Predict the structure.
Amino acid sequence: MRTARRIEAIPPYLFAEIDRKIAERKAAGVDVISFGIGDPDLPTPDFVVEELARAASDPSTHQYPSYFGLPSFRRAIADFYRRRFGVELDPDTQVLPLLGSKEGIAHLPWAFVDPGDQVLVTEPGYPVYEVGTILAGGEPVYIPLTAEDGWFPDFAAVDPSTGPRAKLLWLCYPSNPTGAVATLEQLEGAVRFAAGRDLLLAYDNAYSEITYDGFVAPSVLQVPGATEVALEFGSLSKIFNMTGWRIGWAVGSATAIEALGRVKTNIDSGIFNAVQRAGVAALESGMPHLPGLLETYRRRRDRIMEVFWDAGWKVEAPKGALYVWLPTPPGESSVDFTARLLDEAGVVVAPGTGYGPSGEGYIRLSITIPDSRLDEGCERVRKALVGR
Ligand SMILES: Cc1ncc(COP(=O)(O)O)c(C=O)c1O
């Protein structure tokens, strides 16, 4: 049996590797506390679960779903964009439901990238941008991000010769892994850059509602003209604690929606209609659970920040997403510090290098673990920081 060369070109998925290490430690009797993956620990709101139960007991939901999603779900997404961002979308041509945003992110290069084409990948970033590019036969070209620039690209400084065969540009704010946010003004610069280079701007807004300290995240589609240039990815996973349900969307450029839809209809058969009906209930709800959810995350974020501030770290708390992104102790690499935390403290964090070379010297802690475990984990990290 011989596997394809493209499989050799992609690394094992970061969290599959981390899961393997956790299992090893647990088998050795260690009480492991994981700040690894960003998977909300709190339940999906009751009203969404109840709508799923109702819809699942309706036999009309049991057959293959429509390839392009339920019209009512597409309308609910468009209505959410009008209410939340003031963006008008045609639910038939500018909205495409996805089996989670990861699915669409991974498939987008199949619609845009021919072998030899390039994709501009901002890093540190969500690893699927790079891997999806490689699987489609494309070549990722990194745009490194830095703390000094607030983890946002300095487009004026990007060498015009970078990625001469590029067709796509990936951006994600609120950011996984850095927790950085972007203003509408910054996104205007991104749209200008993409339009000037005839790129599709692929904007990952999976954490659009997960922000702190009064910051309200924009949609890239608020930029005038962006629906010609950009495709935005959204998801119910993080906003509604629905990671297991697999439901998200792409919105924006009708050309990109048509192309991605053409790939998808040949690969998958859509989202369970009962899940889509629950998605309608979620999007039409006004999100009454959100203030409590954000307060929980803010408290956890601050708890972790205090440990590092007390140990002398001079960094600001992140304004968005589900992560705290912190420099490693002086002289310790991401992988070394991650390994030491696991060995000395039984604590799992993600090494910054899992998100690209510019993540060297950083770790990422997720705030999606219950408070009591978070407290215990913070105490162990504190000892590992000051006990040296
Ligand atoms: C930046 C980013 N985009 C997309 C996703 C995928 O989310 P989902 O496929 O659950 O919608 C994640 C998941 O962690 C993420 O961090």
Notes: The longest strand covers residues 166-172. The chain has a mean pLDDT of 96. The chain has two domains: 5-43+289-386, 46-283. The CA atoms of residues 330 and 361 lie 8 Å apart.
